[in-house]
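Researcher: Quick test of sequence recovery. Tokens follow.
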């Protein structure tokens, strides 16, 4: 995924590469204030973002509203677990080929575009299932170091990082070339 920066509703700048230095996953959600299905999924997305707040960054990008319209919407609602922005003239929806809203896209810590879904997901569990393979729940960040030694944890995280990167690349390859071709590539790699 190409790096991008966008001005948030609070006038701070959100840059993908900077966020991925600190987070395991970025969820982009394209929406608009006039879109009822978009607004219907916000409570579920908010609750899932709270569960993974230490390792997931959620950015809700309005495709049609102005920055002040997005700021007003955020001020009138209690969605504190994610950032909001207006797409503006450098429309990120076009960059990600979004043709309808709501639309959610996930980008892993390596900048790999690993999920795209058009349509509302009004269930917290739907968002949690998407985030879970890529991120550590907030509660686990506090106890992870107590379960095993810090050195072992570093090695473990490195192994998980490599496996997740390989899995996300393979998942992307499946989307691009189809399952049969990936099976052939996998057999060649294991030969």
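Model:
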């Amino acid at each position: 995924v190409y790096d991008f920066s966008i001005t948030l509703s609070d006038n701070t700048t959100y840059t993908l590469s900077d966020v991925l230095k600190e987070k395991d996953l970025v969820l982009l959600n394209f929406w608009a204030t006039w879109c009822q299905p978009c607004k219907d999924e916000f409570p579920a997305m908010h609750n899932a973002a709270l569960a993974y707040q230490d390792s997931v960054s959620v950015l809700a990008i309005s495709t049609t509203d102005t920055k002040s319209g997005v700021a007003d919407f955020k001020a009138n609602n209690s969605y504190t677990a994610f950032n909001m922005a207006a797409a503006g003239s450098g429309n990120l929806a076009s960059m990600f080929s979004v043709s309808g809203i709501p639309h959610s896209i996930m980008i892993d810590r390596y900048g790999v575009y690993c999920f795209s879904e058009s349509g509302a997901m009004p269930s917290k569990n739907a968002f949690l299932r998407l985030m879970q393979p890529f991120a550590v729940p907030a509660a686990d960040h506090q106890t992870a170091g107590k379960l095993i030694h810090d050195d072992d944890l570093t090695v473990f995280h490195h192994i998980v990082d490599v496996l997740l990167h390989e899995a996300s690349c393979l998942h992307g390859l499946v989307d691009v070339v189809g399952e049969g071709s990936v099976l052939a590539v996998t057999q060649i790699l294991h030969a």
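Confidence is low (pLDDT under 50) at residues 141-152, 172-191.
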